[in-house]
Amino acid sequence: MNVLDNGIHLAQIMSPEHIQKNLDLITYNGAQCLNIQDRYGLDVGKDANFIVLDGDSPFDVIRNRAGVLASIRKGEYLFKQNPVEYEVKLDLGGKY
User: What domains can you pick out in the chain, each with its CATH number?
Assistant: First the structure.
């Protein structure tokens, strides 16, 4: 995400139209540059190599420099983050 963040700022491609496609710079477009698009992608028969980012949209992922929740290579987890849990203890019976 740091590489993408630096690239989009240097190239000044941060408009709302660009943000929707900026993740392609480090995914599909990277595969084309490496000439591996025949093995890379979301089609049947291609290796299941991908990461799961913590965000609801491309804008959210880029804006927050989203963390990686999971990394999958050839259909197997390389790593999987446990869900974040929060514990908040409130004493609502006391004086304010």
Answer: 2-80 (2.30.40)
